[in-house]
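Help!! Second protein's tokens look totally different from the first
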Amino acid sequence: MKLSLSQVRNYLNRLGISIIAGEPFDLGKIMPLNIASRYDAVAAKIISKEYIILFPRSEDISPDDIALHNTALCNALLLRPIFTFSRLDREFASSLKSAKIAYIVPSRQVFIPPSVILESDRAYADDEKPLGAHLTPWAQVVLLDCLLHEQLPGVVQFSTLRARLKITPVNLSRAARELERRGLARIIHPGRDAGIDFTFDKKRIWRKASPVFVSPVRYSVRIKVKVKGTIKSGVSALSETTDIVDNNFLTLALTTKEAKKIPTSKLLRYEGDVVEAWRYDPLLLNDNKDIVDPLSLCISLEDSPDPRIQIAIEQLLEKTLW
């Protein structure tokens, strides 16, 4: 598959790497036909340095070919070329890296030493990791955020998600790719900003994703002291949004990192409030309220054997999603 300049630009922009592309560059004016005929070329500035971005016209090209062409272009242009590929296997990429040849594989990796070297978790065509039984925390957060805040079906821009979730470009790309691989959405590249395209309504997305949701709660402890940064979760949060009555103790949520800071001397076995240690920050999706978001709450309680809780969960989903 032949790449476009917009795919390269979108990928670099998502990573926060500035690129200013100029006019198409005619290689035929300075290079022999056997090299010039094999590429489309564009002059560009990446992080304020000038390069020639090369788009092979055919996939029938070897690492040795690239090495020869790279040397010839460097000598003729006095500019460093950057080769682009839609996919690379590990052996091909290793050859280019050994020769310090710059290249970009949009959505997978960028190698422009020494300033920019980055690989995603699916960097190589022969090395995409199998999906786990459940969503990764960031993939779940991105999906729940879209269900809570967007009109679906529809496209949610990466820039919107980055601003709302304070998520890094790399983590967002990984999360979006996971949602795509699980058949929950697809990644699109409209103009300068990529986005996640959801083709189902919220109820269908929820039903489809339910088998792979992971409880946000890693573990819970009981304490009698106040802990800063907690918000209501569990039945305490459910009682705020449905008709269920709270327990005679509070259930509170905290990140796992913060929960680990609670001194063991303050932990109890049978008394006190319950503090849940969450896989992701419970403040990410709660819209500055004093309770966790309704969808994470439903997921955290879905295995409860209490029929009152199951009825309350259905009430909350009805109010939130459909």
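Here's the second one for comparison:
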Amino acid sequence: MRARAVARLVAPLAAEDLRRQLVPSAGSNVGCKRAKLCCPSAPVAPIGLASGAIAVRVALTSSTRKNGLVVAAVVTASATLGTVVAATGTASALAAAKVTAAHLRPAAQEAARVANHRLPVPKDEVGGPLLARHSIVVNYPGHGAPRLPDVPASAYVIADASNGAVLAAKDAHGLFPPASTLKVLTAITMLPRLRPNADVVATKRAASVEPNIVGLISGHPYQVADLFRALLLISANDAAVALVQASGSFTKGMSLLNAEAHHLQAYDVVAKQPNGLPAPGQVVSAYDLALIARQALSMPAFMGYDSMRTAWFPVKRHEHVLLVNQNYLLTRYPGGLGGKIGWTSDAGATYIGLARRHGVTLIVTILHATPLTEITSAERLLDWGFKMSSAVRPVGVLVPPLPVARAVATRKHHARSAIGNSLSGSKATRSGRSAAIGAAVAAGLCACAIGGLAWLRRRVLLRRRPSG
């Protein structure tokens, strides 16, 4: 626009001559009256020299007039070319801006779609609003239906593993120390990341855990499979630390545990020790333990270790220790599949129980129970659940894990959009610079033309002045 305006200032200086000497050819956008360089309503491309439409006819009767007209024609053509460059640069900048906007729109729409994929709810309402209650929640089908057993525990959940239906619960999202039930989270997190036949060298940190249970020796290598057996059969605290450190470091391993809990939507979980030993702020809920247990049920490797009755553990080359599964739900409860026992003085007794009868698989989780009552309480809750699984209306649902593939695809999409936006931005910047350079060139040429034409005009006037 600046080049176009300057060009219009040049033309009137030679209007008397250009009016007659510049004759537009067919299809040209050059006007005959004022020698305008472009038509505002016409495209930029066919302007002046860009289409070869300017024809210059110079009168040969006066050398001064000839020189002036040649200069005017050349400058006018140069200004036209500058206008074309500037306009082209501007068009490129606009095109780049459109490309940038085209990249931004899908990214923004995708971000909005992902954000709206799952409405945010308070952590204590994950799975349903009834689960936020601290009291017992259950929907009995009628007055004659069997009642829930009275168990000495602060919190519990009984759920169908197949469809996720929560049959009954007590303070499902209440926060309590997990004790050794947290080892199930350690197992399902590390199982997919470690090869069973790989060796892990026990560190001083792992060997010095108290109580250590299996007795790892610092600097001694142990197979991953042996460590998982010790973890799940006898609840070995030292094995839990060794498995987490096998990820690269203790800190990295604990980050993986908490990330896995988030993936399962177990938002109540705060894991600080892989073995569940007391740690400030370390808590779980009965609901989140049920989510973790449901994931464990879907992993054949976990169930293979967890359902073992006995195994030998090589503490040293010539010293083996017999491991006997502590969870007697496996041996004395019909349909028992496995689970995990836990206890600390702060947490009390904690428990995860898994059982299957007649094609129905149930999960029971118990927190802060009276010690030595946890398995009996679980058996009573399971008995009630098998009787009522098809009769009661669920009070909530075990939510599925977050879709990892979709989350990864979304991150890749956002990364590609960011790269595209960066490239488009650089193109727009370059186009803007080209427009500025074109405008500056045109303005400079036109300024020179103004000075040259003024000098020629003065020279003509001086020649016409009578001498004497």
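Reply: Different proteins will give different token patterns, so don't panic. The first strand starts at residue 22 and ends at 24.
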